[in-house]
Amino acid sequence: MPVRSVRGGRSTEGMVMLPGGDFLMGAEDKEGFADDGEGPVRRVRLKPFLIDTCAVTNTDFAAFVDATGYVTDAERLGWSYVFAGFLPAVLRRGAARPDRTPWWCAVPDAVWNQPEGPGSTVTERPNHPVVHVSWHDAQAYCRWTGKRLPTEAEWEYAARGGLVLKRYPWGDELDPGGIYRCNIWRGRFPSRNTADDGYSGSAPVTAFEPNGFGLYNMSGNVWEWCADWWTTHHFARETLADPKGPATGNAKVIRGGSHMCHRSYCNRYRVAARSANTPDSSSGHAGFRCARDLDIRQ
């Protein structure tokens, strides 16, 4: 499928309509993280909606910036997080690093169109997912296209591709028949990535086989922002209709995992896995895809 090029307005190019209905959300998986609020499994009912088949690309985001002059949070703040292994020594040396995740470097002027900081470019990655975009940035892009971010429930329903309580968008086995189905960290994290799946960093948005709904890279590649504020408290007593999460909060939900995820540390490329970040945060492994309400007049 060719990578789409979006325009401002209400185009549905590059989207698919999902029928909604009831599905089982969450997991009580032995490989999961109960403290992340993956469970309990609960029944959710969704209206039909539209969702992008792919994450928003560098080409897509460039069109938005060119048309609007938009300035991202990372550009305004003057820095963003980049994986140390992607950096030249001059940028890696002396970079501020979080105590708990020292493989991340705070790199001045690391932004969406120079994702590894000064001297880097997305010229050779036009159809890779845009990164170094905050939740605010994703919201701004969605408004420009006449779309919105998916709710967490919509995201998980879409990622499941019609399968029921499976671990991944394609089933329960990570590499069925020895075939790689997603872009994650292969090898020993964080010191050695074999890139056996073909990619040491991000992959094109149409890499790997799509799921049963025709959606690409719902596991791995880049984390994807959702509309919801983060909570770990869910209710399973009755069917939830179009849940939208808490009314307020401190962090927004991100789903899907990324090319930085490894079973030994961040086994969150499973369909039910979840995490969160503050809405002004950005990094070299987080992007987004858009959704849209179904226009019944169409």
Description:
The longest helix has 11 residues, at 58-68. It is globular and about 55 Å long. Strands 12-11-9-13 form a four-stranded mixed β-sheet. It is an alpha+beta fold and 298 residues long. 13% of the residues lie in helices and 18% in strands. The model is unreliable at 1-8 (pLDDT under 50). It has helices at residues 58-68, 73-77, 89-92, 135-145, 152-160; strands at residues 15-18, 21-25, 42-46, 49-52, 79-83, 104-108, 187-188, 192-193, 223-229, 240-241, 252-255, 274-277, 286-287, 291-293.
Strand and helix layout:
Elements: E1 15-18, E2 21-25, E3 42-46, E4 49-52, H1 58-68, H2 73-77, E5 79-83, H3 89-92, E6 104-108, H4 135-145, H5 152-160, E7 187-188, E8 192-193, E9 223-229, E10 240-241, E11 252-255, E12 274-277, E13 286-287, E14 291-293
Give, in order, the helices and strands.
Answer: EEEEHHEHEHHEEEEEEEE
Please state the CA-atom Rg, rounded to the nearest Å. Answer: 18 Å
Tell me, briefly, the overall form. Answer: globular
Task: Please indicate the percent range of residues in DSSP E strands (runs of 2 or more).
Answer: 15-25%
The overall pLDDT average reads 93
Helix run count: 5
- Order of the strands making up the biggest sheet: 12-11-9-13
Largest sheet: 4 strands, mixed
**Helix percentage range:** 10-25%
| Number of beta strands | 14
What would you say about this model in short?
With 298 residues, the chain is of the alpha+beta class. The chain contains five helices and 14 strands.
List keywords for this structure.
14 strands; 5 helices; 298 residues; three-stranded antiparallel β-sheet; four-stranded mixed β-sheet; alpha+beta
